[in-house]
Amino acid sequence: xxxxxxxxxxxxxxxxxxxxxxxxxxxxxxxLATVVWSGSFxxxxxxxxxxxxxxxxxxxxxxxxxxxxxxAARATWRQRHLIRRHLAFVALASLLGITVYNTLVNQxxxxxxxxxxxxxxxxxxxxMALYExxxxxxxxxxxxxxxxxxxxxxxxxxxxxxxxxxxxxGDLWMFxxxxxxxxxxxLLKRRPEGLGGAVFLYATFLLGALMLLPVYAADxxxxxxxxxxxxxxxxxxxxxxxxxxxxxxAWNKAVALVGAARAGIVYYLQPVCxxxxxxxxxGERLGLLGxxxxxxxxxxxxxxxxxGARGPRRSG
Length: 316
What we know:
The chain is globular. 82% of the residues lie in helices and 0% in strands. The chain is built from 15 helices and no strands.
């Protein structure tokens, strides 16, 4: 009897409480990353008439590299052979998530509001779902309905209450940014095993900045440099240190504690955060139409996300 009772506490039962204890902290970390990323849209909008988009993107990643180097450089050097083996994958991820995405966000900030930028980005999970469908996954009627509702909210938002016959340049740039981010996110599912999260981020920061270098040099010739003032350096430090370094590390830790699906639900609060920040810092008013479009986008994405979460259980 004593042997039987001694064996009852199995490793599986002793590990169950641990995720529960860290769940609240994980959600807070996901919320921190979401709020900080929301601020990057406000920063892009704040820089629209002082720093050219390519230059803003380039210096963002230079600042991010300087901020992350003390914490990730040594581990990256140790895994350099693994990075070289999977260089094509890391380079593609760098191109989509670092070089292209953030440059497009800065370009969009020239001619559209921060609120529009955040709401259009909230529809990016719809594009991610389409990638799943192209990969052979079944979306289901409810998930497709959610995608349609979210897309309708985005179209009504950029069309100021009607289905637009022509989109503004900034909105088109932001749609392209959302496509780039969705492609990057879909690619992350194939990240090589053994390549650490911090190492992967640091490597993409380095390669992304390197890819931007020739474009940055050409932009300097065309537009000239920008004046380093508090109004230009401050937002660049914010997006470089907080949006690039702190937010990414907080998000990775959140995913480790609560899982990607639960952390992803928090990400859908981004349009709300962007709207509040843009109102407080830039004076951009959302209005009733904006609130209604926000409700459509969040409701559609939430419906699509909730349906997707149940899909694997049925097939299993």
